[in-house]
Amino acid sequence: MSNEDSDIRYMATADLITELQKDSFNLEDSTEKKVIDAVLTLMKDKSGEVQNLAVKWYNGVLHARQNLCPGHGKQIRCFAALPSLFNFKTRLLNGPLVKKIKEAQLQDVVDKLCNFAAQQEVEELRDIASIGLKTIIVEIPVNSPIGNNVTKRVLPRLITLISNNKATYEVQMDTLDILAEISARFGSSVSQDMNKQQQNALLPLLGYPRPAVRKRTTVAIGNLVMHTNDELFDELVKRLLVELNKSADSKEMLRTLIQCVGALSRFSAPRLGAYLSQILPLVIKYTKTDDDDELRENCLQALESFVLRCPTEMTPYITQIVQLSLEYLKYDPNYADDEEEEEGDEGENEAMEQDNDEEDEDEDADDYSDDDDISWKVRRSASKTLSAIIGTRGELLSQLYHQVAPALIGRFKEREESVRVDVLQTFIVLLRQTLVTAIDFTHNVDMEMGGENSKRRRGTGSPSVVPMETEESPKQLLRNQVPRLSRALSKQLVSKSTQTRQTGFTLLRELVTVLNGGLENHIGLFIPAIESSLSSAAADQHHIGTTSNLKIETLTFLRQLFKTHPAVAFHKYLRRLCPPIISSVQDKFYKITAEAFLVCIELIKVIRPINYDSVSQTQTVQPLNPEFKPYIAQIYTVTMQRLATSDADQEVKERSIMCLGALLSQAGDQLVAEHRAAFNILLERLRNEITRLTTVKTLTAIANSPVCTGEEVKRTVLEAVDDVAVLLRKSNRQLKVASLGCLEVLVKRYGKFLTPASFTNLLTELKPLISDADLHLLPLSLTTVVSILHANPGSIPIIKQDVLPSVFRLVQSPLVQGAALDSLLTLFAALVRTNPQDYTLLVAGLIGPVANDKQVQLAVSKQSYSTIAQCVATLCLNSEANCSSTVSDFERQIEDTNSSESVKYLSLLTLGEIGRKVDLSGHAKVHTTILVLFSVPSEEVKSAAAFALGNISVGNIPKYLPIIISEIKQQPKRRYLLLHALKELITRHSQKEGSNSLGTYSDEIWVLLFDKCESDEEGTRNVVAECLGKLTLTNPYKFLPELQKRLQSSSPQTRGTVVTAIKYTFTDQAQNYDDLLRPLIVEFLSLMKDTDLNVRRLSLSTLNSAAHNKPYLIRDVLNTLLPLLYQETVVKEELIRMVEMGPFKHKVDDGLEIRKSAFECMYTLLDSCLDKIEIFGFMDRVFAGLSDQHDIKVLAHLMMMRLANVAPTAVTQKLDDAVEPLKATLNYKVKQTAVKQEVEKNQELVRSALRCIAVLTKLSEPATTPRFDTFLKEIRASTLGDEYKTIVADADNKERRGADYMDLS
After folding, report:
1. Residue in 851, 833, 832 with CA at minimum distance from that of residue 842
2. How many CB atoms lie within 10 A of CB 130?
3. Between 139 and 1283, whose confidence is greater?
């Protein structure tokens, strides 16, 4: 390597590289140093080839081992390769040497590289050394001791380099890059003294003549401030403020200072927020500088950063920044546009008349070019600033629609493409923010998922109106902008710019999704754009990828457009829409084909609409216009062609089947000649494992169709029913759900054609599903059994033999509730109506397990008793002949002193269920017998007796209500149970449709209840409050003012009862008394600031109920209620007391329950009133909850996950603040003496935190959330790494299943 011949030196170096690449090759310490010195010498070799090879070899030195243990002599290895630099000569970091060297040698290498970087004679050597140093810093692991040692060694030399006034421009540039990397990666290990030296060395460079150095200095300062203490940071900001004030005449300096301030907001926003009141006026002042567009751009970029990262401090300035951004959104000094100036006063008719002139102006604008004009950067920055405000200020949506939306629409015609796309994207952000905060958000999601509730299917073309939508609501304000938006956007959609057109269609899709329609009167404007976008011009063939994306976006928009508008709105445009859509099905790109099939499905519903009335549950078939019949045939032809292709993509296969199903279900009567071929293909696909799920859903839709009938349909059903029944054995749950739905429809529509063998086979397959193992499949299975019973009453013997034993076991399950219970009751009603002789058998089968039980305790769970009682009551109500005798039997059971507790309990529940629907006054002693049971020892029997008395009273109020009132007055020991009976009566009576008021009894009950609300027992007060609330609903105009009067009561028990009573009024969905309640709501809920702890807790519970049931009542007063709510989330030291338990002391937090109620209320508000919440103030309390007690932490995790979905921009800016509380939760160790429940509770909390982190991960970016990104890496490398990966995988699977459901629904 030291030979005079350059060829020999070259070959020797190459051979050494080859040897070093072998894992078995090792260097001894003495040899290692010699080799390194030789290579360092070769870096200065006169031969370019040798020098290049030496660099290539030497950069392998930088691959130090990650797992170095100082003192153990382990080898070093850590770095990867960098790409080419300086053409062929400087291929860097691809060599293997440092895989073999130790840390001591690496330190020597760093020293020599520093020397090379500092020398100014050989520029190429200096550049290579600088890149080498930077690569060392980049590649050393963050937590490695090597990094700290290298940093300590190299940092002083780097500071000396940048402090040298004689250092060249290139040296300064390279040194600043290295310093920035050191601060970013190892800044936490650098001492504050060294940080001060760095800061003092960097600040003068802000005035360096070359812009590139100033920019790198700004980056270096930004990375540095993450690790400086408050004293250094304050010193830096004060220095910047001084410079900002005195540099008004130096535009270059101002640009740099503004950039530096923006960098501080990105890297240390919380600390900079304290100075914003001083910084902002200066930034705004310099934004208005007349002659410097670059400075103006920097100022707007800084404002955008402030909006995103200092939200609380920026709140007072938002309106001013909006105005400033709007001013510069249209800033274009080199292009005159008179219409822009008069935009605000322009009338709609005038605008339509000027359309042609505007098009000409736009064409002229496209031809305009000025290389020196950078005003477009100002407009782009203004647009981005507005986007930041929109994305983080959901509570200002109405104001933004008044001020910002018209201006954005006016700038759709922006002449610079990149700015135009940014403006469109900003409007999309506005639409998405509206969707997130829209009141009928759930309905829109249902529309997105292709549910049956679409507007066209409902047979109405008017948008849905909810109580909370007013003239000033964001959605209504958006509707008002639609005409102008449509005209402006339609011109851009026919422009030459593919990116503009694609973004424009995205905007339109978001628009119709938010409004659930809205373009009925403007569809014609977009027809030319749709046609041109779906037709690939020959000139566009070199942009195949771009064109494909445009097509897909156009088709996605069309699908949503068809879904959300009435069919009649499209009929006059079908001649132009159908050909390009149908042609897209034949596109070579499978994604376009798949999306085109989905559009065809919606197009078929437009061509032949079938309206569904959810009230009468009937379908109305619209006649098919003869002009549209050829389109049906064309869609059928291309669909069959695709179905016949064996090598089609899976997505295309599934959607072609769906399209065929739509054709047959919407226009089957027009394709009678094609039935055999179509149904044969469906039967073939049904037997294919890959496509059977989609085919089952398709058969369900066809069987439900009122227009697809005939012999071929019957033949297909007879063949398919057994095949579908077999699918119930499969493990795929989604397939089983679809199969059950299909079987129910097939049996209902074509049951009379099925053979007895098919019914027997069906019941055999259904039998295993009649259990509580899957409560989603259970109601579907029971409903299918009912359909079989109706279609073929002769199946009763088989049902009794195979199904009933499973049903009788099922009623004993405590899990049978909701839909499963409703289906079970329907089954028993069908059984007794079909064969009344089986009544005794059915009753005996239901009560058998209880009647034969002689134990003192209840034989099964309370829920099971309730299920059995409801089933027996259903049998009675559907068999009038047996009703009276059954009541008498149960009455004897409760009279019999020898009856077991279980029998009495069931008998009382059953009498209550029957008595609610049937007048039992004919059984004269029934109420007396029940009252006697109020004194038995068993608490279960007493509660059942109260239930029975209250429900029996509903059947005959005039007879039984006076008895209950009298008993309450005269029997203080029974009062609690009698109040429960009264609660049952009032609740059940108020639920009856068309029920009259309790009449003259109301006043007496009202007085009686308030007499009892002073009880010391909270249970009694709760029952009284529920009675008062339900009673208020019977006559709100009378009783609401009465409740209001008692808010001023001196008794906390009375105040608590009143506010709880109001809670129970919210559960009634009727709106007839809302106008009466609305003005009183603040007065009721202001009890959140009551002096009594319990009253505050009850008031929070009431607010939660209002937010959940009737959010529109509180939306406009949230600005009053939220500060009170937030106050209750604060940990109050005065409520924490120390309790001595023997030798131990234990902290008791009396405010915990209140805080829990407050956080529960916040969680509800996040779902129902998001657009009225100032998101950053809300997030501050959520972040506080991350450090609270166990239950509150779990709620905070849930809210963080929800916020990540609805306000991602805001959450991203605060993500680093969540690191410490989340880390504390994950690192918490329970005591070794902790019991099993405490360990499991902590484990569940850790899983909750990991689930939250898994959602937040999607928002994390190293540049914007460095601390959270580092936190993630620590989790993945920790003992929780495997569990975290599992949680992420589960979340991904859920999303994937959701996507599959959307595609196949």
Report:
1. 832
2. 22
3. 1283
28 within 8 A of 62, measured Cβ to Cβ: no
Enter the DSSP assignment of 465.
Answer: -
- The amino acid sitting at 224 is L
Amino acid occupying residue 378: V
Please give the structure tokens belonging to residue 435.
């969707």
Query: Tell me: the pLDDT tens digits for 462-475?
Result: 333 344 567 778 88
DSSP string, 264-302: HHHH-HHHHHTTHHHHHHHHHHHHT-SS-HHHHHHHHHH
What is the CB-side half-sphere exposure of residue 43 using CA atoms within 13 A?
Answer: 28
Under the banding of pLDDT at 50, 70 and 90, the label for residue 1208 is confident
Given the structure tokens 């070019």, which residue do they identify?
369
- Which one-letter amino acid corresponds to residue 664? L
More confident residue, 126 or 1258: 1258
Q: List pLDDT tens digits, range 920-970.
A: 888 888 888 898 888 888 888 999 999 999 999 888 888 888 888 888 888
Structure-model confidence comparison of residues 8 and 864, the more confident one: 864
Indicate whether 1161 pLDDT > 90: yes
Q: Which residues pair with 1145 in a beta bridge?
A: 1140
What is the distance between the alpha carbons of residues 766 and 696, in angstroms, rounded to a whole number?
A: 17
927-933-936 Cα angle (round to 5)? 170
| CA atoms of 1079 and 1114, how far apart (whole Å) | 10
List alpha helices for 99-144, DSSP H: 103-118, 123-139
- Tokens, residue 65: 């081992």
Give the separation between CA 804 and CA 797, rounded to whole angstroms: 10
C-beta neighbour count of 144 within 10 angstroms: 18
Helix (H, G, I), strand (E, B) or coil at 1138: strand
Instruction: Say which DSSP state 414 is in.
Output: -
- 956: alpha, beta or left? (left if phi > 0; alpha if psi -120 to 50): beta
Asked if the model's pLDDT at residue 49 lies above 70, the reply is no
CA pseudo-torsion sign 364, 370, 373, 374: positive
> Has residue 449 got a pLDDT over 50?
no
Q: How many CB atoms lie within 10 A of CB 623?
A: 6
Q: By C-alpha distance, which of 297, 365, 288, 292 is closest to 327?
A: 288
In one letter, which amino acid is 1168? S
Top-confidence residue, 1242 or 167:
1242
Distance of CA 1300 to CAs 663, 724, 1285, Å? 22, 20, 22
Q: Could you give the 3-state DSSP secondary structure of residue 223?
A: helix
Quick check: pTM over 0.90? no
Residue ranges in 411-543 assigned as alpha helix (H): 417-437, 441-448, 455-458, 474-492, 498-515, 523-534
Measuring CA to CA, which residue among 430, 355, 227 is closest to residue 1266?
227
* Alpha-carbon gap, residue 1045 to 1043, rounded angstroms: 5
Q: Give the total residue count for the chain.
A: 1305
Contact 215, 259 (CB under 8 A): yes
Q: Which residue type occupies 1016? A: D
DSSP state of 118: H
Contact present, 902 and 862 (Cβ < 8 Å): no
Compute the C-alpha angle 901/905/908, nearest 5°: 140
Q: Are 1187 and 1155 in contact (CB under 8 A)?
A: no
- Cα separation of the two ends of the chain: 72
Q: Is the pLDDT of residue 1247 over 90?
A: yes
DSSP 803: I
Cα–Cα dist 21/43, whole Å? 20
